[in-house]
């Protein structure tokens, strides 16, 4: 093996990443403004004082974080928050101790993580929600959605709940959300990241299976009825981004067929992305394609990317085995 020379390689971010870190996005500005609003009177008739906004560590490009964003925007009048852009991309100088070919390393990209994010969540994952009054943090995207919904109810939210009130229906929604995570989410990264054509095709087949199941189980305009819910919030960030698989892999979701399944799915996608509080959260298409090219070209050294490259499912990434530092030292 040719050893990587220990010469200095300057860490450089793309113009896109620099822009993200230097300037507040429209969504961030809007949510900061909303965070200053006084909470409405609770449903129990008790007065609620304006609470300190949650610190929301996020990243514009991350579909996992996008799930929490949808929940926060759904309950924006009851759960104030301030967006903190916390992830970027950087190239890192080699140490000289790596055990791989120099050509394998020259254009790898690693996640830059803000010090504030790492202080709140040492794993450095988004979404992370932090209560500034107590320094208690909530992590994991599906857990964050449920936490936001519970907090909104306690604060007297007038928006429809994201989870059903019936315990059995709540349990069914949690199961369906996890199935979406295992099929669509993991299938998306398998189709995008794996290099074998058959493995990519198998990943996209998992995506389609997940979309079929979601559509057939839906009981109204959305999965659980007439308003956005937990399962919709888990699926939507990936459903919206599936254009990336068509762009980089040639995989397209059908527009019609299978007894109307795909017509109903496409109608749901159009309906969900058109919601007034959802549309501003959607990343610009060309910008996202530039970001996700790092995954399609095998250059992104993130925990999810590392897990999928070694053959694991995206939802089964390992915090130690798939950590950035481990892969900087040649773990494959």
Automatic annotation (TrEMBL):
Residues of the GST C-terminal domain: 166-295
Keywords carried by this UniProt record: Oxidoreductase
Cited Pfam families: GST_N_2 (PF13409)
MF term (GO), any: glutathione dehydrogenase (ascorbate) activity
InterPro entries: Glutathione-S-Trfase_C-like, Glutathione-S-Trfase_C_sf, Glutathione_S-Trfase, Glutathione_S-Trfase_N, GST_omega, GST_Omega/HSP26, Thioredoxin-like_sf
Domain GST N-terminal, first and last residues per copy: 52-156
GO CC annotation: cytoplasm
The keyword Oxidoreductase is annotated on this UniProt entry: yes
Keyword Transport among record annotations: no
Record protein name field: Glutathione S-transferase
Organism: Emiliania huxleyi (strain CCMP1516)
